[in-house]
Amino acid sequence: MDTSQLLPESPIEPILSAVVIPLLKGVIYQENDPPLWGRLVALDAKVRDYVRVLDLELVLDEAEGYAFLRSRETDEGEPGKPAAIPRLFPRRQLSFPVSLLLALLRKKLAEFDASGGEARLVLSRDEIVEMIRVFLPANSNEARLTDQTETQLNKIAELGFIRKLKASSPSAPASYEVRRILKAFVDAQWLADFDARLDAYRRHLENPGEENSDD
Question: pTM above 0.90?
Fold first, then answer.
């Protein structure tokens, strides 16, 4: 689909269009395209005004180096208010295992930041498996657990929260960089309730079958 077709029909400066269209396609990272990032930062206010017409808002974190568009929160169904514009970015329903893994990765990122370590958090597949293992029965099948974890990691990579890195050798387990955009979706308030959520996760694992919804 040509994302330029999503833009309003009002005139738009070519340089602004060159920033908005990539945003409609997905996340912009400073490290991936410094020139594009520079244009976005310079046009911050104009981009915000323009995407508002599409009922979107710009999330731009200069410190972490990422930017993306999301649907604006609106009060739907109130008397006297116009009907909401259909969402360009629909809500996604995540499975419980994916939600659990996202929570654990966000907690790990918070601990990593608190330790004052390097800028990038990189975890091996085996380290991530160990993070999940504590929530499972002691007799869980090792091969099945690894396969399920890799499936969940692939889903999270598709969502853009982690990036799979090239293995150092064919026999080496995969490693993943936890992308800092995860902080925008799992915020500090969410982490404050993390222990209570983990209790809920443990109860869920004792009674599987439920689904968890997330944006």
Answer: no
